[in-house]
Each structure stands twice: as C-alpha cells, then as structure tokens.
C-alpha cells in the first residue's frame, strides 16, 4: 500500500504535477516514513541543478533578495524552486506571512514553486527534511533551488550544509555582521551580498569583509556583491552589469569551482560528516522513542565486563566534552 503510494507520488513529481510535489514535501516535513521511500525512488541527483542558500541576520533583506533573484532567473527562462525554512514554525506547510505576501507576485507563475517549511522539533530533523525537499524539487525539474532561512541559529546553520552555494547577506547596519559572526555563518559563506548599499557605511562594511577574507585564505575567495534591492520594485529587465547579474555569475562560478577535484573532495568530506550527524541524531531519536525496549535489550545482553559503568560514562564524557561550547 505504502510502496504504491510512494510510487504514485514520484510519478507525479516526475511528470511535473505540482500537487504531487506539495504532497511529497508535506510527507517529508512530517517525517513520514513514506518520504524516505519517495526520495529513494527519485532519479539520481541532477548535478546541473544549482542549490543556493540565502542566510543572514533578521531583516537584512533575504526575502527581498529571493524575490528579485526569482525574477532574474525567470528572465532566463529557468524553473525555480524556493524553500523558506523557519525552524520556529511547528505547523505543516507553514506560511511565513510576510514572505508569502511578498512572494505572491510569483504565486501564479507555473514555473516557480515556493514552499515554507517548519519543523516538528526533532534534532537534525530540519536539515534532513530540507535535503529531501531539495531532492524532490530537483526531480520536479527545477534549474535552481533557493533555500532561504529565517533567523540565525544552529538549525539555520545546519540547513546551510545541505546547499551547494551559501550566500550570506549582510548590510551596513551596525551589528548585522557581529550577529552573523556570532552564529558562525560568516565562515560558511561562498558569496557575500552587502545589501542596503544605499545606507551609509557600506564601504566600511565591504572593507571589513575584505580584511576578514585576507586573513583566512581559502581555495575559493568569496566574492562580495553590493545591492540596493528597492531599486528592483517593478523591474523585470536586468542589464548585464546589474548587481543581480553579478551575483548570479558569482554563484555560477562557485558552482563550477565545486566541480574541480580539490573542492569536490572537501565538500564530499563535509557532506559525509553531515550525513553521519543526521544519522546519529536519528538514532538518538529512535532510542528515545523506544526507551523501554532499548533498556530491556541492554538488560538482556550478556556483558563480559563488570566495568560497564566506567566504560559507558567514559565514552559519553569524552564524546560530549569535545563538542560542548566553551564557557570563559
Ligand atoms: N534601505 C534599504 N532597505 C532594504 C533593502 N533591501 C531590503 N530592504 C528592506 O529591509 C526590510 C527587511 O527585508 P526582508 O527582505 O524582509 O529581510 P529578511 O532578511 O528576509 O528578514 P527576516 O525574514 O525577518 O529575517 C524590508 O522593509 C525591506 O524593504 C535595501 O537595499 N535598502
Ligand atoms: Mg525573510
């Protein structure tokens, strides 16, 4: 019954049926077991599909940028998927009101699929669901998938590990960069957007970013693009030297960089680590869900050692102490 259901939904997704896409993502969001089957049945990953994350401090302009980027990509005839991730929203198909209203302009465009996603609160659940939703939108035939996070925190950071290119949006407003740095998102940037370039202090913000990049040289140096988003209120045409075109070029260059050997290996390693983390989180959840059975299982085992307490504690302590944030 279940297998049939999954098969049916996958066929719908592949045929471009938007209701099937919506249904599949709802199952993913609810962490329904059918979701795993659906993802399992999807064709192999489409390497040409670009998966771009947009993150940054609250109010910095992520949603406005997503909206302008959608318009830009539409001028190129692309099919675009958007996932707005809100870790604080517990409800299914969660609509982030402001964002929904802003993106309503695309609601009637059959080539744009926008979806908000919340979480049921399981550890690591959101990045796993995002990863699966990305796979579904890819199979639906999106050329580009934009993943926007709402707010800055560990869950948002986790979600950014599921994308290929991370765009960190910042602004000259005091505190934006500090807040982003505190949350650890500056380090994961592949491209920087300094938005609100109409505000004073933009040159200083760019200079600070350049200095930061100077002291942490990496194989890929994140380009910095300045934008003034209200300029695009009713804009549908973009000049080749438009900042949005520059941003898109930077994303494409990064996408190409990811195909090189060195970058591929680093990325592969990171992703393996991320998968392991998600699997461990899931195991932890399963242990909690079947506490009694698990306890009984442990009790019924034949343990050769009498030092079980020391050994268990030692393992747990070593493990936990390595990853606990240091308090000074
Ligand atoms: N002055 C100026 N204001 C801007 C610019 N870009 C966006 N804004 C305004 O900044 C406000 C926040 O923009 P959003 O796009 O909602 O920001 P966000 O990062 O999505 O916000 P959250 O989803 O709440 O984290 C809105 O009132 C925008 O109109 C800009 O380039 N210059
Ligand atoms: Mg937003």
Could you explain how this protein is built, in words?
The model is unreliable at 91-95 (pLDDT under 50). The protein has helices at residues 2-14, 18-29, 33-41, 62-75, 97-103, 125-140, 154-160, 176-182, 202-215, 243-258, 261-289, 291-300, 308-323, and strands at residues 50-56, 80-85, 112-117, 144-149, 165-170, 191-194, 224-226. The chain is an alpha/beta fold and 328 residues long. It is globular. It contains 13 helices and seven strands. It has a seven-stranded parallel beta sheet with strand order 3-2-4-1-5-6-7, sandwiched between helices. Helix 1 packs across helix 2, helix 1 packs across helix 3 and helix 2 runs antiparallel to helix 6 (125-140). The protein starts with a helix and ends in a 5-residue tail after the last helix. Helix 8 (176-182) links the parallel strand 5 (165-170) and strand 6 (191-194). Residues 62-63, 99, 150 line the site of magnesium ion.
Task: Offer a quick outline of the entry.
By secondary structure, the protein is an alpha/beta fold.
